[in-house]
Design goal:
The chain is an alpha/beta fold. The protein folds into 2 domains: about 270 residues, 3-Layer(aba) Sandwich (Aspartate Aminotransferase, domain 2), CATH 3.40.640.10; about 100 residues, Aspartate Aminotransferase, domain 1 (Alpha-Beta Complex). The protein has 16 helices and 13 strands.
């Protein structure tokens, strides 16, 4: 093991032994190289002759680039062409940390890490797995989940996914969640995704404390827990009784055995899917700047060893947009559009005629909702009928149909639901 990794491990062990135990073998071995190329390049910065950095530089010291891009990009050259740090742009990281406190007022003054920039949230999940999942480790997630979780936790990192039924009696299944956690011995890796993809469900204010308490009970029993929190759809909540902050807030102060790992970013929050920028932020009870710095160094090392760094242009565009006069108004306008579509699909689905063939699973937030077909129907067959006969595309999970109302104009939402009803009728007549 490299001495730089050993030093980081010793720092973490001194400050929180449980966090060190949560790290995977990869996580224990990784470090951000402060010696070698990066160190020597930093020492040479500003010198008259600098033959260290792996970039092409013009005679005047600016980044070499094709002139065609000058017509397309208005940012300063230094915010576009050079490599970004593996940690991410410092000013963007600082801004995002401040925004976490602003969006989550109950976090108060709880110390958290400075976010590390990832190439979108999928990359953030992958880096979290790199840091915390060893082969054979159990990863607890709801039974309704995004398929990329399997690709990352199981296929890439050889973990073992264990699910719990997400819903019971029309709400979050706290009992099933607790029983699943109880069944695991030793370290627990847990992923929570609110608003949930594919269901569009976020726990209610009345449920969130029960979920947190279920995790606390595991720590009280001596188990160490890493709670990976996929906040991809953060802020897109459409009902008053829904918990509007991140569960990260409460888990960050819960117990020294519970490490909260917040994955978020502008992809959905700021409608920039192609920018591929996300963030990893850590929180743990009695966490200190020294502990967080060690985790940040390991995480940045994992990013460097994986993709080197995230798009400098994307980071610079975001940072510029966050300080524009129009930013908040534009963001509110997009939220209102999605909220209006949500309210419309709720109203349409309230028609009792649809219960002949399907019912909606609980939903209150995000981009999606799911309908559950009656046992006499086959979701894949319905999907194909919709494509062939009704020019309508949906996603199927088992006998559920996921509808991305985020992608459907409000005026077409009644037709979307009606087309599913008609496709069901057509299937029944043929079978």
């Amino acid at each position: 093991m490299d001495k730089q990794a050993i030093d980081l491990n010793e720092t973490i062990q001194k400050l929180n032994t449980d966090v060190l135990e949560l790290l995977s073998e990869r996580g224990k071995n990784i470090f951000f190289p402060k010696l070698g190329i990066l160190s020597q390049s930093a020492q040479a910065k500003g010198k008259n002759i600098n033959a260290t950095i792996g970039e092409a530089i013009e005679d005047n010291g600016s980044s070499m680039h094709l002139s065609e891009f000058d017509k397309l990009i208005k940012l300063p050259l230094g915010s576009v062409y050079p490599y970004a740090p593996s940690f991410g742009k410092k000013e963007l990281r600082d801004y995002w940390k401040e925004s976490i406190y602003r969006k989550n007022p109950s976090l108060g003054t709880t110390p958290i890490s400075i976010p590390i920039v990832t190439s979108g949230l999928t990359h953030g999940i992958s880096i979290s797995s790199y840091m915390f999942v060893d082969e054979g480790d159990t990863v607890v997630i709801p039974d309704l989940y995004w398929e990329n979780y399997s690709l990352i936790f199981e296929n890439a990192y050889k973990g073992r996914i264990v699910t719990f039924p997400l819903f019971k009696n029309g709400g979050f299944n706290v009992e099933g969640f607790s029983e699943t956690l109880d069944s695991i011995s030793g370290k627990i890796v847990l992923l929570l995704n609110f608003p949930n993809n594919p269901t569009g469900y976020t726990p209610l204010v009345s449920e969130i404390g029960l979920i947190v308490n279920a995790i606390k009970q595991q720590a009280d029993k001596g188990k160490s827990v890493v709670a990976i929190i996929d906040d991809a759809y953060f802020g897109l909540v459409y009902e008053k009784e829904v918990y509007t902050e991140s569960i990260f807030n409460q888990l960050s102060t819960l117990n020294e055995k519970v490490l909260a790992v917040k994955l978020d970013g502008p992809t959905k929050e700021d409608y920039v899917w192609g920018f591929r920028v996300g963030f990893i932020t850590y929180g743990v009870k009695n966490g200190t700047p020294e502990l967080y710095e060690a985790l940040e160094n390991k995480t940045a090392g994992a990013v460097r060893g994986n993709i080197s760094n995230v798009s400098h242009l994307s980071q610079s565009l975001l940072y510029a947009a966050y300080f524009s006069e129009q930013y908040e108004a534009d963001k509110n306008e997009k939220y209102n559009t999605l909220n209006s579509r949500y309210q419309t699909i709720v109203k349409v689905l309230a028609d009792p005629k649809f219960t002949k063939y399907f019912k909606a699973l609980p939903f209150n937030s995000g981009y999606f909702m799911c309908i559950e077909l009656n046992d006499s129907l086959k979701a894949e067959a319905i999907r194909k009928i919709l494509l062939d006969n009704y020019s309508t595309g949906v996603i199927v999970f088992g006998n559920l149909i996921r509808l991305a109302f985020s992608a459907v104009p409000e005026s077409k939402i009644p037709d979307l639901v009606e087309n599913i009803y008609l496709a069901c009728e057509e299937y029944i007549k043929k079978n």
